[in-house]
Amino acid sequence: MQHDVVFSGFGGQGVLFCGQLLAYAAMDSGLHVTWFPSYGPEMRGGTANCTLVVSDDEIGSPLVRHPSCALAFNNPSAEKYEALTEPGGLLIHNASLVSHTFTRTDIRAVPIHASEVAAELGNPRLLNMVMLGALLQLTGVLPIDAVESALEAHMSTRRPELLALNKQALRRGMSLAELAAA
Amino acid sequence: MIAEQLTEEIVADRPQALSTADTHYCPGCTHGIAHRLIAEVIDELAIRERTIMVVPVGCSVFADKYFEVDAVVAPHGRAPAVATGLKRVQPDKVIFAYQGDGDLASIGTAEIIHAAARGENITVVFINNAVYGMTGGQMAPTSLVGMKTTSSPFGRDLKTMGAPLHMSELIAQVAGATFVSRRSLHSPAEIRKAKKAIRRAFEVQLNGQGFSMVELLSSCPTNWDMKPVEALRWIETHMVPVFPLGDLKSITPKNGLRGI
Amino acid sequence: MTKQLLKGNEAIAEAAVRAGVDAYFGYPITPQTELLEYMARRMPELGRAFVQAESELAAINMVYGAACAGKRAMTSSSSPGVSLMQEGLSYIAAAEVPIVLVDVMRGGPGLGNIAPSQADYFQMVKSAGHGDFKPLVLAPASVQEAVDMMALSFELAEKYRTIVTVLLDGVIGQMMEPAELPPMQPRRDTAPAWALTGASGRPKNGIIPFSLYAEELEVYNQRLQAKLARIAAAEVRFREYMLDDAELVLVGFGTSGRIALTAVKQARSLGIKAGLLRPITLWPFPERRLWQLADEARGFLVVEMNAGQMVEDVRLAVGGQAPVKFLGRMGGVVPMPDEILDAIQKLDKATRPRPVIGTIEGPVAPLRHPISVN
C-alpha cells in the first residue's frame, strides 16, 4: 500500500497543517510516512504545498512527480494538478474557489464545496478539515478514527472547543465526498 | 653584623608568564615590550594558570613560545571569534587576543567589531605599527597618508588608498565595548601608561564587564627602514598626532557596570 | 521511546543537544535556518553556549575556539556559507580539534537557489579547505538516520580528533518523518589532556597548527595522513538494498539514494535485477565493496543531484570492470523515480548479453573482467 498525496493551495488555508495531521495519524497507526513542504521564497509568493507519502513499506522518494491523489485548495492548484495527477488518480478540489474546467478523463476530479461548508460551520479555517475528510472518504488511506485521535494528540490544546469543530468538519467532508462520488 | 645587612633583594625579574625563549623579533621592535607588559600584568593579577592567549597571524604568530600560558593560533583576523568560542564555554578563564593592524584593522574588521558589539568578555591587545610586518612591509589600513611601503611605493595616496583607519575610535563607538584605550610604546613614560591600560583591560574582563581593547602604537624599524631609536621618535612625531593617545572609552563600576 | 514526527533540521539539532553538544555557533542561511533557530531556544535553556555569529567565517572560528577548550562544538550551514567556512575548516583540520559541521546543501554555483542539491560533494569530500586533509563525511538519507548520526559524529570526531561533516540536502532538512530521538546524554565534565583550559598544575598547552620548516611540516603531514588512513580503514559505512543477485547496481547517497530505491523496486517489479548501494560515509568511500560488486554486475548507474561528482569515485572504484552510467539533475531539481527507472531500463538493454544466433545453447555468459578481488 502506498499513497502519494499532494496538498496545494494559498498560504493561510491550512494546507501544511492538513498534511501534517495526516502524517501524524499515519505515524500513530504504525505506517511509514514522509511530509515534505515547499519552503523559502516559494512560500512567500503566497502558495503553499506539501507532499505526503504514506506506505506500509520503507519509503524511497519523499517527492512525487505524479501524485495518486491531489488536494487542490484553490484554482491555480487545480490547474497545476490536473496536469500532474497520475492516470487513474484522484483530484479533490475546493469547488468554492475553483472555476477551472477539467478536461482529463483518465483522472477523477471530485468537487467539494469546502470553503462554503467551513463558513457554514462558523469558521472559514475549517476548510482544510473538510478537504481532508473528503480525502479519507475517497481513498481510505486511513480510518477517520486515526485522524481524530491524531487531532486530539497533536493539536494545540489552547482552544479545546476547536477540536469538536474540527471533527465535525472532517465528518462533513466525508459525507460530501460520499455524495459527490455517488 | 654588616654581612647580615647585605641580603640580596631582587628588584626586577622575568615575569613568570614570560618564557625563557629568545624572541625572533627584529632589533628595536616593540613586540617584546608589549609581551613583557602583558606578562607583568598576568603575574600581578595572578591569572597565569587560567589565561589562554589567542595568537594571530603576522609577526607575533610565534608569540605562544614567549608566554607561559595556553595558546592557540587563529586564522588571520579571526582571533576575536576564536576568543569568543574559548570564552563562551569556559567563562571562568581569562581570554586575550593579540592582534596586529593587518589582522585587526583589515582582514578581521568584522570579527573585532562584532566581538565588541556582543560585549564579549575578552581582552584584545592591538599592535599598531602602521605596516604589515611579516609579509615584508606592505601598506596597512593604519599606514599614514604619504607613507611609503612596498605596496604603496609612491606613498599612501589619499585619493586611491584612503586614510588610516582609527580602530580604537571605531570600537569606542560600539555600545558593547567597556574599555578602549590607545597607548604608545615609544618612551618609558608612555610604556608605564600602556601597562596601566593593559592592567585595566584585564581587570575589566575579571570583573565580567565585557569587551576591552588596548591599542599600542608600536615600531617596526625593519620595514620602516629606520634605526630603532629613530623609529621610536617617528612614533612620537608622526603616529601620535594621527592616533591621539588616551582612554577613548572607560566605563567603570561607578559610571556603569559594562558597555552594554 | 516512541517515534515523533520531526523536521530534519530540528531533529538534528535536538539529537546534537542530546549527544551533549556544549556550544553551537551559526549564521542564518536557507535551508538550514531551523537548526540555528532551534539551537537559539534550546541551548540557553540548558545553560549551554549559543552565538549567532556575524558571518560563517566567525561562526566556524568560534567553533574552533570552543573545540580548543575540549568542548563538544558544532555549527551548521548551507553551501555558500560552507564556502566561507573553508578557511576555518582547514585550520581546524590542522589543529586536530574535533568538531561537527552540518551542511544542508542547496543549489549552486554562486547564490544559486535554496532548493535541495548535492552539488557540494566535491567541496566537502575532495576539498573542504586548502592543504591535504579530509573531513569524515556522513550522508543521511532519512530523518532517523540524521538523528542517529549526531552522537556518532561527535564520537568519531573525538576518537580521531577530526572534522566530521553531516552532509545532507534541503529535502532531508525540511522534511518531516517519524523518528526516535535518543535519550539525553550527560555532558562530559572532563577536558582532554590537550585542551586549552589554563596551564594550572601542568606545562602550558599550545594548539599551534603551523611550522615554517618544510621538513617539520612534512612530518606533521605524514602523521595526519596516517590518521586519515586509519579512518579510511575503519570507518567505511554503507547500506545495501537487493544487491544479493543484482545485475545492475545503482549508487546514490542521501536523498538521491532513497529516490533511487523507489526506482530499484519498480525495476524489480518489471523483472530487472537491480539493487542499490547507498554510501553512508562519502569519505571514506565504500570503494572496496564497489570493486567487489563490479565483479558480478553488468553495469552501474550513479544517481546524484549534481553534474556528476560521486560518479568519479564510483568509476575509480569499479576500475573499468563494468560500464558506469550517470543520471544527474542540477540547480535544485530532484530526480524522480520514473526518470531513474528509464535509465535503469536503458542500462539493462545496453548491457544485456546478446543471444548468439543459430546456436541452441542460448545466451552466452556476459564478458567479465578477468581481475577479481583477492
Keywords:
heterotrimer; A: about 180 residues; alpha/beta; Pyruvate-ferredoxin Oxidoreductase, domain 3; 6-stranded mixed sheet; globular; C: about 375 residues; Rossmann fold; 2 domains; 7-stranded mixed sheet; 5-stranded mixed sheet; about 20% strand
Describe this structure in words.
The complex is a heterotrimer of chains A (182), B (260) and C (374). Chain A has a single domain (2-181), classed as Pyruvate-ferredoxin Oxidoreductase, domain 3. Chain A is globular and about 40 Å long. In chain A, strands 2-3-1-4-5-6 form a six-stranded mixed sheet, sandwiched between helices. Chain A has 182 residues and is of the alpha/beta class. Chain A is built from seven helices and six strands. Chain B contains ten helices and nine strands. In chain B, the strands form two sheets. In chain B, strands 2-1-3-4-8-7-9 form a seven-stranded mixed sheet, sandwiched between helices. Chain C folds into two domains: 4-182 and 211-234, Thiamin diphosphate (ThDP)-binding fold, Pyr/PP domains (Rossmann fold), CATH 3.40.50.970; 241-351, Rossmann fold (3-Layer(aba) Sandwich), CATH 3.40.50.920. Helix content of chain C is 41%, strand content 18%. With 374 residues, chain C is of the alpha/beta class. Chain C has helices at 8-18, 33-45, 56-68, 79-95, 121-126, 143-160, 170-174, 214-234, 254-269, 287-294, 310-318, 337-351, and strands spanning 4-7, 23-26, 49-52, 73-77, 99-105, 136-138, 163-169, 176-179, 206-207, 238-241, 248-251, 274-279, 281-283, 299-304, 324-328. In chain C, helix 1 (8-18) runs parallel beside helix 2 (33-45), helix 3 runs parallel beside helix 4 and helix 10 crosses helix 11 (310-318). Chain C starts with a strand and ends in a 23-residue tail after the last helix. The interface between B and C is large, with 35 and 39 residues.
